[in-house]
Each structure stands twice: as structure tokens, then as C-alpha cells.
Design goal:
Blueprint: E1 3-8, H1 13-25, E2 28-34, H2 43-52, E3 59-60, E4 64-65, E5 71-79, E6 82-83, H3 85-92, E7 94-95, E8 101-108, H4 115-125, E9 129-137, H5 144-155
Length: 161
Amino acid sequence: MNVCIIYHSETGNTRHVAQHIATACDGKLIDITDRGSYNRLTRFLVQCKMAMGEEKTEIEPASIDVSGYDQLVFGSPVWAFKPTPAIHAAIDALKGCEGKKATAFCTHGGKPGQTAEVFQKWIEARGMKCVGNANLHQNDIENEKKTKELVSVVIKDLPSA
């Protein structure tokens, strides 16, 4: 079974977890880049406001064909207690996702807030079935046991796990 891990990472924490998931299930990684124009000083504030409003931003790649994959995994940092505008845009940019199972995970410095619920809403709005959610605090990124626990939660419903 083919698994595609689509993630957005600003600091590298979400990328780190996505790489562990890809290794565990032999999945394909797609790194989403936020292409929005932001002032260096206000970047975080603008993006948090966009996250609160569940807005989308311009991303690269602009279109993502997942028709050749059996299952999808989405990853995002938490901004303002929600997934980022970039991962929202990525879910919206999917081609061939209808009817697929999807799992989501987030990395956070505080609390995950509404991230799981928002991920589920976005996933199901695109015709996918959300089969799981997991989160990892930034202090546990280098904790091998905690990372393995998150990976096991994410891959438990994957066909190749």
C-alpha cells in the first residue's frame, strides 16, 4: 500500500516527525512551503491570525495529485491552537483524494487546542475519512520513546503497518 505524508514545517519539528513516519511505513514525503508574502517582523502574527480564521495561503506545490496513494497523512505545527494556513491550502489543493483514509498529526509548543477537530473537519470536507489524530510537544521531539509512540498512533491504521 502506498502512503503519502504531506506536511508543513517552519522550525523543523513537524518535518522531523514526518520523516519518522515515512521511515516506519515506507511513505512518500511532500513538504509544503508557504509562499505568502510576509514582513519578517510581522510574519508570525499574520500567520497566527490567518490560522485562527482557518484561512489558506499560497503554497508550493500549488497542486498535489494523491490519486496513486492508498492513504494520506497530514502534519502541521500548531499556530493559535489550529493547523497552519499552509496545510489548509495543501488539503484544499489535493487531486484524487476522495474516499481515501487520512490521519493527521501536529507538533506544538503549548497545547494542541482545536487542531485535531479542525484537521478532521478539513479532511472530511474533501471527501476523505479521518481515521486518527496525534500530537507531540516540541520538548519531546528528540525523545525517541515519545516520537515512537506518536508514530505508532499515526501508522496503526495504515495498511502497511
